[in-house]
Amino acid sequence: MWFMRQAGRSLPEYRRVRADVPMLEACARPDMIVEITMQPVRRHGVDAAIYFSDIVVPLKAIGVDLDIKAGVGPVVADPIRDAEGVKRLRDLEPGDVHYVTEAVGELVGELGETPLIGFAGAPFTLASYLIEGGPSKNHERTKALMYGEPELWDELMRRLSAITLEFLRVQIAAGASAVQLFDSWAGALSAEDYRASVLPHSTWIFERLRDADVPRIHFGVGTGELLSLLSEAGADVVGVDWRVPLDKAAQRVQPGTALQGNLDPATLFAPWEVVADRTRDVLSRGAAAEGHVFNLGHGVLPTTDPDVLTRLTHLVHEETER
Ligand code: CP3
């Protein structure tokens, strides 16, 4: 078990070390990366660490002018809307993210038996930030490009897929023991559009990671109708949000696929007995899957009481030992 967004804003010790360091500067400093990645492992005793970074870090590393604004998310100065913009996206070289190699190496030493999960943003979710210029509710410009200029869309997705693959390979080469592809906004698409315009690219990434021999997790939000396709892309584990019970999700993925999830992060604000009951429910439904990694259905919310996360970690450990 681990928590998406376990490293971050719910922890006072995180807010302390980040107090006067901008997010993207923190993501490029091995000392900060190591400290922040370790914080939730030390505090909660979760079974895995997630590498502290952000999905836009490899884009910043190839020179895209972007920033992460607190309370907003990634903001791109010059959004990509045409062939000129797409051409500006160059390949990622390992040297562009030397701090990742350094930080992962240090972390693997410090973590000992605890695995480190590496991650990257999936090409669709990255494309949405690049095209919209920031967070978007309706992804209208992204869809306009996807529907209106399918060849340019494919070229953009090919470039982003190569960047994502390289970013994951750097983390694996430095010692990450699993990787998660975050396609957080894939749920904005119909199954038909996902299959035609996104699936081939995410599949390309998973295929090229097969030789690396590390478990590959594929996650998106609002993907109830897409779970079989997320699985078809070739992941070993499919991450499920809280909208689909895991026993149902188990019927939607390919045979042999494990599930990850899926307690609603908002549950952690309810009385403890509710948290405990719902956690037991997630665990019993997860038993229907061919392997279950306990997690929330999306990231830890910033105002979550960290003590509830610790208590929840202990509960999951007790229940699974029983
Ligand atoms: O603990 C972890 O999971 C590791 C770190 C991590 C961060 N971002 C740190 C972060 C991970 C895995 C991500 C991935 C990420 N980033 C995703 C995919 C996961 C998801 O939530 O669906 C997305 C969509 C982003 C883009 C992004 N970056 C958003 C939407 C935000 C939030 C903006 C806000 O302040 O509300 C960020 C910033 C960000 N990424 C923070 C952290 C700890 C907050 C920065 C801060 O402390 O100021």
Automatic annotation (TrEMBL):
Pathway: Porphyrin-containing compound metabolism; protoporphyrin-IX biosynthesis; coproporphyrinogen-III from 5-aminolevulinate: step 4/4. SUPFAM superfamilies: UROD/MetE-like. Keywords: Cytoplasm, Decarboxylase, Lyase, Porphyrin biosynthesis. The record marks 54 as: Transition state stabilizer. The keyword Cytoplasm applies. It catalyses: uroporphyrinogen III + 4 H(+) = coproporphyrinogen III + 4 CO2. It comes from the Bacteria. Substrate binds at residues 5-9, 54, 129, 184, 298. GO terms for molecular function: uroporphyrinogen decarboxylase activity. Its main location: cytoplasm. It is found in: Cytoplasm. Its EC number is 4.1.1.37. Residues 117-133 form the Uroporphyrinogen decarboxylase (URO-D) domain. Belongs to the uroporphyrinogen decarboxylase family. PANTHER family: METHYLTETRAHYDROFOLATE:HOMOCYSTEINE METHYLTRANSFERASE RELATED, UROPORPHYRINOGEN DECARBOXYLASE. Catalyzes the decarboxylation of four acetate groups of uroporphyrinogen-III to yield coproporphyrinogen-III. Homodimer. This is Uroporphyrinogen decarboxylase. It comes from Nocardiopsis mangrovi. The gene is hemE.
